[in-house]
Specification:
The protein is mostly helical. It folds into two domains: 5-40, no CATH class; 51-93. Helices cover 45% and strands 0% of the residues. It contains five helices and no strands. The chain has helices at 5-16, 51-60, 62-65, 69-79, 83-93. α2 crosses α4 (69-79). The longest helix has 12 residues, at 5-16. The chain is elongated and about 50 Å long.
């Protein structure tokens, strides 16, 4: 169930009578809506990203954005375009600040 009741109610209302609108929700996991409204929704698993989609994603991820196109193609071939793997790799490529404000070790 979606924890924000107002959002859940809005999505349930749109699911039952969308009118002329369309809505795309991306979520890692299927979810339930009030009144079982999720039964009229279509849940689709998305496959891995294409190389072109990976390039677009790299612009938004600082670690991957630093790589050249040939390096990005190699990364794409190695992880198969899987979004979560690409995000993990980006996190490894960019030193992050710890919550206490200290610089993360390694790099």
């Amino acid at each position: 169930m979606i924890q924000d009741e107002a959002l859940a109610d809005l999505l349930a209302e749109l699911a039952h009578s969308p009118g002329r609108c369309r809505l795309l929700v991306t979520c890692r996991y299927p979810f339930a809506l009030p009144g079982g409204a999720e039964r009229v929704l279509s849940f689709k698993d998305l496959g891995p990203l294409s190389f072109a989609e990976t390039l677009k994603l790299a612009w938004a991820l600082p670690g991957l954005d630093r790589l050249g196109e040939a390096e990005l193609e190699q990364v794409w071939r190695m992880v198969g375009g899987h979004l979560r793997c690409l995000k993990y790799l980006d996190a490894l490529l960019v030193p992050r600040r710890l919550r206490s404000g200290r610089q993360a070790q390694g790099g």
